[in-house]
# Entry
Amino acid sequence: MKAFLIRWLINTLALVATSLILPGVWFREWQAAWLGALVLGLLNAFVRPVLLFLTLPLNILSLGLFTIFLNAAIFFSAGYIIPSLMIRNYTWAIAGSLVFSAFSTLFSWILHERREFNIRFHLWRY
# Structure
């Protein structure tokens, strides 16, 4: 539960920072930042993997560049789901998704939100 709340806080900070930098992304009220971060997290957790799988041939042909447009579509759809989160058009959604991911990575690094990987190596001597 603690990791979920930290991730939600990081996404909220990234969404607020994105709205402060880009004039095409804004909020009507501050509660939309919390709700928008939650919706973006849920869309990225459940919808994005399915869409990535369905668009895998297009991703292979474009050498992964189509993922940028897919991320922008998810970012833009969060604006449709949350009425107080305003995204002007798809161009701003592309820029917003790139800036949002950059800020999310930066804030994760600053707040030291790292996932631990437990890898065990067994060395057998014969």
The CA atoms of residues 68 and 123 lie 42 Å apart. The beta strands are 25-27, 85-87. Helices lie at 2-21, 31-54, 56-61, 66-81, 90-110.
